[in-house]
Amino acid sequence: MGVLHSSGKLILFADADGATKFADFENLEKEMLRTAGGEPLDESFPAVIVASRAHLEAESMAVRSVPRTILMLGFHLLVYTFAARTIKDTQCGFKLFTRSIAARIFPVLHIERWAFDVELIFLCERWTVPVKEVSVRWTEIEGSKITPIWSWLQMGRDLVLIWFRYTIGIWTDDQPR
Length: 177
Hints:
Layout: E1 10-14, H1 25-35, E2 48-52, H2 57-63, H3 66-82, E3 94-98, H4 99-105, H5 116-126, E4 131-135, H6 148-168
Parallel strand pairs: 2-4
Antiparallel strand pairs: 1-3, 2-3
Helix pairs in contact: 3-6
């Protein structure tokens, strides 16, 4: 709802935990300008810039336990297989949208849990909307709301549902009337 009620040519979605620093907004904005054709920004050009922690993956594997690393790699495989092939880190909660794509995509999202980011990228790929990934600084914040096994099972289920329901037409990407 926050995205749909926001104003401005660009809309930044940021997780409330502060794991990604707002100083990195400038990097996303620069990539958005490159993607959308430069200054002045054409807010009607649909584009999404996704903050990414993918460059930190090797380091995070060294820090995580073996079961968590296996679950992370399994999740990445499911994302690639069923939903999003252009973005390595769909779950970083720092994404920049042009007004036009935010107005088009947020009203048609069905997933309201952790995997909504994946549905968002899935739809962008389906519509051939440019989606670019930009490396950001990221800090692990204590008190995560993710329960490792249960949350990953929910996300895995949601990934399969995204693919299945759009493929057979249960869900559509048509704008609500």
